[in-house]
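Hi there. Long-time user, first ticket. I'm pasting a complex I've been working with (about 312 residues overall). I'd like to know whether the download I got is complete or cut off, because the file seemed smaller than I expected. Thanks.
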Amino acid sequence: MKLATFNINGIRSRLPSLINWLDKEQPDIACLQELKAPDSAFPEAELQDAGYGAIWHGQTSWNGVAILAKGTKPTETRRGLPGGDADTHSRYIEAAVNGLLVGCLYLPNGNPQPGPKFDYKLEWFERLIAYAQTLFDSGHPVVLAGDYNVVPTDFDIYNPRSWLKDALLQTESRECYARLLEQGWTDALRKRFPEDKVFTFWDYFRRHWETNSGLRIDHLLLSASVAPALRDAGVDKWVRGEAHASDHAPTWIELKLDTRKANDEAVKNAAKSAATRSTRSPQPAKAAKTAKAAKTAKTAKSPATKSRKTPS
DNA sequence: ATGACGACGTCTCGTCGA
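Hi, the file is complete. Here it is re-exported in full:
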């Protein structure tokens, strides 16, 4: 199962590029940010023709988020973060797709800082942190994907020198991101590439793409039950190299999250366990002890199996 | 300190992004 996040910087201007990418890479789920279009301008029919169902939360000119799913329409579970009644920006949308809960977010940029925009960024971040805790604690398989507008460390940028005053590198921004991770989330790209420079954004200025002067600001965070299912991750850099490209590249993860298979195995194991108990009924105490030991060994060997949840 | 580039709307410049 491939899940991607892509800040497309204008869905109308980028539609041919988006369709081309979907066609070539076939993500099962795609989180989009910066639609820069009102709800009425969302290209639902064109995406349907490309094989994707969608939910979206648009806004004139700015922001805007959407979740696409191949061959199905995502089941929307939320739009906007809790506590944001006065917030008019379209920056969060969430859906269930095949038992996985997907949060698609576009965190405020925050420039210039200091100032009201940076304050808004930190406020929004606090609301995300609070809500993310409840998601994580639920034990449900969750992926929080999007444009976080945070360069987590100096290793996540070609050279921090000319960005030191930028909102993306501020200590406050980084501390918020670190606090989010401390809840237990796995930063999938960093997990997959612990020692490589990985970029997801190259600005249009100063030949930054041509010189690979990038930033890593698009992140996919995995909850405890999803993290063991991570098989691969990457950045579709070729998209950034196309003519008329967004300044971000699609960033993706590959998960082996077959909940149905996990359920089948659980049923099989339960049946086997019951059979073992019945054959050893003359020595119930010993049988229970053996079963318990076996269970403990299995859990230690494969925590992923234990933590997988049934889709709701 | 500014601007480089690109999208969008108010529409040919101003505002915003990162």
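A couple of notes from our side: Residues 278-312 of chain A have pLDDT under 50 and may be disordered. Residues 111 and 167 of chain A are 5 Å apart (CA to CA).
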